[in-house]
Structure formats: structure tokens, C-alpha cells
Amino acid sequence: MATLICKDRVTMSDLTQMSTPPATATHFPIPHHEALGEVIDQMSSMNFEIKGEPEIGISHEGNRCYWLMEVANDTLAKDWATIIGGRNSHDKSFSFRILGGFSVFICENTQATGEVSVTLKHTKNIADNLKPRVTKALSAITHQNLVQSERIDAYKNAELTYEAYDNIEIKNEDGQVTEVKRSYESSPFINDFVVRSMYKNVIPSNSVKSVLDEWRQPRYEEFTGRNVWTLSNAYTEVFKKYSNPEQIFSRGIKLTKMMDALSGYEAPPMPQTDEEMEVA
Questions:
Q1: Angle value at C-alpha 117, between 259 and 53, nearest 5 degrees
Q2: Domains of the chain: which residue ranges?
Q3: pLDDT tens across 158-167, in order?
Q4: Cα(224)–Cα(230) distance, rounded to whole angstroms?
Q5: Rounded to 5, what percent of the chain is helix, strand, coil?
Q6: Rounded distance, CA 157 to CA 187, Å?
Q7: For the chain, where are the alpha helices, taking DSSP H only?
Q8: pLDDT tens sequence across 209-264
Q9: Between β-strands 104-107 and 96-101, what pairing exists: parallel, antiparallel or unpaired?
Q10: What is the pTM of this model?
């Protein structure tokens, strides 16, 4: 999921026309187009293919810039979309920051979330440190993609208890059968698991029935299998009705922990993290 909340939208060409305030003794701003350009250049060199054009927004008279890009490269992501975003400021409101993962939210009110977060302060060495910092961020996102690929394979291979089902015929106004969907009887194990997920704050109490409904009658054919992957998707379908991005992000992390435990998957550690890198 990619969300950029910013009223004023611009293009890369627009950014090149914007002025950058001079450096002070303690603050060294970099042009917005150079910040985003470095990310795009390194994405290209690391075979990240951008789907369409970057979403770019500005606020506070152009002193703050935000961007989002969706990766279209199928070798990096097949069952999910990889999002790369970021922001840069000229008014000391926040550091240069790259965000990446499968759920990235950026808002002009300074809220921002992503599975991978790498920052760089506007100090005198920012020009020298920008390139290696972007490299570190994109490497971390690549690592997360590999982990996610392994995780989804583990989820798909983790079969759950067999459940009986009925075939439900979907008819049009003329009474003709247009579609046949499976309707499962959820097992006691699944019922208990969903309730336990409520107590772990993965979902609120009023979403228990919604998750079970998605599990019992999947809306997509590819999620009719009885495994951890399809159970996970029952939750993420319900997540789509939530409106608070930070809440979705927090619930998603908790869901992943429960699904990892259920499937027996252990994610490898992220290499070379530091105080300016966060990995969910």
C-alpha cells in the first residue's frame, strides 16, 4: 500500500526550478531534485524498475518535498508491491529520509512509516554521505524483498487443518450461473486463532467476523487453499477498510509475527543496521 498525502503536486522538472537556501554553520540543505535524483539513479543501477512516474509533493512554500514510487520489477516482488518513498526539507523540519517496503505512508504533517527507514541529517558532510546512505537504504529494501519472498513461500507451504466446503452458485438476473465460489466451514483451530489475534491487537473485536467471513468464503480463487498464506490474506483484506495508516502498519507487524510463528518461519537478521536505520 502506498499513500502520499500532500496537496501540492509537482514534477521532477518543477523541482529543478526550485531554489535551495544557503547553508548555515550547522545546517546544509540539499536541493530536492538532487535528493530524489540520487534515489532514482541508484534504483536504476540496482535494477529497480519504477512503475509509471514518481508521485511528488511539496509543502511549506517548497521547503519540504515528499515522493513515492512503486517498483514494477517482477524479479523483486511477485505477490506484493514494493514501494520506495522519501522526503527532504530545507527548513530543518526533518532529515533526508528514505522509506521502503510493502506499506509506505508519507504525509505533509510529518507522519511517515515504512518497513525500512534510513535517514541522513543535513550536516556539512551530507553531500559525501548521500550516495552511500541511499545505497544502504536500497540494499536494505532488497534484503526485505528476499525475506518476504521466503516468507510467502513458507506461508504457502504451511498447510492448515482440512475444512469441508460447499460450492455456492452465483447467478445473474436471468438465473444463469456466472460463478461458483467455495464456502468453507472454519475449523475450531481457525476460530480460536482469530480470537487470539484480537487479544494481540492484530484486529479489533468488531473485525473478528469479517476475518472469518473472508477465510470461509475467499473473494479470490487463488486464496481458496487452506494454508497460512490464504489466512494472512483474509486479514489483509479486512485491513483495507481501516483509514489510519499508522494503525494499519502497527497491526501488520503484529500479524506478521503471528503468521511467522504459525508457519514456523524465522526471518534472517538484517545486516549492518545502525542508529540511522530502522527495519520493522
A1: 100
A2: 2-154, 159-263
A3: 999 888 888 8
A4: 7
A5: 40, 25, 35
A6: 19
A7: 12-16, 32-45, 126-157, 188-199, 208-216, 228-239, 245-263
A8: 999 999 999 888 888 889 999 999 999 999 988 888 778 888 999 999 999 999 99
A9: unpaired
A10: 0.78
